[in-house]
Amino acid sequence: MSESGLEALIVAGLTGAPAPVAGTPTSGAEERAPFAGPDDYIEGHRDDFDRAHALDLVQLTSFLRATQPELVALLSLDADMPQRRAFLARVRDEITNRGIIDVLRSGVRHGPHAVTLYFPLPSPGNPQAAIRFGRNRFSVTRQLGYSLDNARRALDLALFVNGLPLATFELKNSLTGQTAAHAEAQYKTDRDAKELIFRPTRCAVHFAMDDREVRMCTALAGQKSWFLPFNKGHNDGAGNPPNSDGIRTDYLWREVLAKRSLSDIIENFAGIVEERDARGRIVARKPIFPRYHQLDVVRALCANASANGAGRRYLIQHSAGSGKSNSIAWTVHKLVGLEVSGVPVFDTVIVVTDRQVLDKNLKDTIGGFAQTARLMGHAERSGDLRDFIESGKKIVVTTVQKFPFILDDIGSVHRGRRFAIVIDEAHSSQGGRAAGALNTALGGTEIDEEATTEDRILAVIEGRRMLDNASYLAFTATPKNKTLQLFGERYEQDGEVKHCPFHLYSMKQAIDEGFILDVLANYTPVSSWYRLAKTIGDDPNVDVSRTLKTLRRYVEGHDHAIATKAGIIVDHFLDQVSARKKVSGEARAMVATDGIERAIEYWRAINAALAQRGSPYKAMVAFSGAVDDAGEQRTEASFNGFPSSELEDKFDADPYRFLVVADKYLTGFDQPKLFAMYVDKTIAGVKAVQALSRLNRARPGKSEPVVLDFRNDPAVVEAAFSDFYRATILSGETDPNMLHDLKRGLDDAEVYTAEDVEAVVSLFLAAAPRERLDPILDACSTRYEAQTEAEQIAFKGAAKAFVRNYAFLGTILPYAVPEWEKLSTLLALLLPKLPSPASDDAPLDVLETIDMESYRVEIAAAMQIALNDANAEIEPVPTGAAGGPLESEIDQLSSVVREFNERFGTTDFRDQDRVTRFLFEELPEKIGANGRVQNALRNSDTQNARIEHNRAVDDELLGRLADHTDLYALYNTDQAFRVWLQERLFAAATQTSSPSITNPPPA
Fold first, then answer.
1. Is the pLDDT score of 850 beyond 80?
2. What is the pTM of this model?
């Protein structure tokens, strides 16, 4: 198919006219197409385009003649008169200043005239609105000559609405070796962005496409033009699926650009978002147009809500950096106006986020849509939510942290309303007592003043459940097992109940399409070597395991170590990032540390290293709250020298290039200039994905972000990302019967009595003062303290497990168990009163007895971590209690120091630190988590458990052959080493297993 053939196919699809037969002329310029059916476009004529004003004069005049005929004579639209030229200039300038979308939505004022330039989609049952909408003139023009200077320059296609340009196209044919990439290059090199039709805000979107792929750009800027994919995706990756009814890209004109679909985009999606600084000043105006996955998820959610009403749950798994804030904003805006038979599907939409940074992002994004800003309230304090609902606000944005205080003020009159609860980055915080409080406040559960305790308990249970008058829409890039079971789509496969996302835009697709960057493509682990010296004469006995961990924290936090690593960070950034003009010379770096004090130490060390290098750059530090610094309470603002509200704006401008954090900004922070991350904190699972994904935001001039990791094993990071690379699926459901088992064990511990439970619950539900509750709880605590350490640990672990899991299961179980609710209430009040088991072996003064002799680091070669291209299944929520107490291994301090240095200082391996960390940290953890080993330790005798354990050690070492070749060779050839390692690992596994291994019965 030639380019002209693709033009003809698109025009035929839009106009409803038959495509021309091969071999016949395909130009539509010679023949004026009639106004076809109500859902069809008109084929425009290239000679009707007024290049001086970038308008289709014939279509504009025809629209105004049909809808506002009095204006035709008043504006002299039929003749080239000063009145017409003034009106056309006014329309042109308004599009330049306000953008094409706002001009279509709101029209223009010209002298005494209010000119309507578009009629919106009609609501059901409104025939007059339907007639007006039918008078809109959607047109498509081929080979549009757009330039005043060069008449031969022409666009392949352009779309107009009532004569106003909305979209342009450059088309290529992949069969001739010309692809969408060539069309993109044509826009960048051969289409002058200074031409009127290409100027910012003039058109809503520009498409570069072929018969396999579509790309889009909202603002042309020559070589800096940023094109994004506009594809459906195929096998959770880039591209489009095969199409049995046509070419792969025909969804663009058959679905997206169909008149009613495009009208929906004009009215509800496209536009200009204003970005403001900390003082509220506009710093940028950016045109936005939805990507395919964003358009698809919003429409899928609205269609399902229209069909099923309130009371549904949806899980949307969209990759970090995929534009979730805009997707949420568009969803919220559409849900507010969603009606069925003239009745709103939802009365109020509540947006809940569990991070302060994202709360601001969402408020700003949703508020950026002018059509929803007046309907929105920001719930900042107690009373806001109630006031907003009563004053008619349709959208309320808040955080999980604020929500418990806000919910107390919702009056019972609002419990009969229908709510949509949109949850950003939904995790387990939405599955426990916070969700229960939310459900109780918004649900129809009311408790009569004369109700019995049993009635009150049943009412609380009903309130805890997911509500049938609220729909939950949970957006996340990293769904946990609780999130999947709470919000995922339930289905059966091979007799197993599973849960999957309602909508997926995978990390794989986002990376394949270049919409986000692969943060694991340039991952560099940094190893450490160090030696410790004992500085005291005596040799006290200490707990080996806890002392080794304390020593490692000491070494990594020692002033010399911090200074050394800060020097590496600064040298790497200045030499490998800044000097190479990464991100067009604007690259930023984040340093992730394992605590606020460590962050402050790094902040000082990095600024000192920058000053020593003579660099003009500076670092800033970010943390929440206040910290004691040399006897003075200080905040991040006092360290940085400016208010916290200005931090994000300051980081976007020089001289600030480094942001040092502990936890703050590791989630929800969106800074596309962020290019390098230096990690000196243990991260795994969801937190690893969230933290490193701060680097994945794409922007022009940015590619191949880098990670230097001082702390983590690449295999651990790979495992974390693999769960979320494609679809995440819950492999089963949590067994609620485990709550019966936990309750039986707790009852048998005799810390509380049945009378205690009834008394506490009755008093609690009656809002009795603490002086009436405390005597009962204190008596329970006294019984707890009289037990052995092992019994205390067992009880407290089971109590925590019961409270945690009932808070989760209570939201989804279809039946009520009052005994569970009562026990959960008692335990939630009792747990804070239970002291932790005392231990005399904690190494409280170990750091006073040792000093560091030497410290050095070595940067390993950068590596690309490749992820498994398959859906990931994760296990359901476990409901058991934690294991029993660990048996402390006591040894002399000198032996511990010697063993520490033997492991980390003198082992003859090529990568000593990685080998020792693998042997004594990662390998024991992996063996301890092995399901077969756990089962054998719990249910087999010692001999069989050892056999299963040693087999697991063999498998783990074989699986890491590529990473630890020398170690594997030693393990296979040196029997003494193999036996020593197996024995040490088996001893560690038996200590952490509960219950203990049984001995074989006597013969």
1. no
2. 0.74
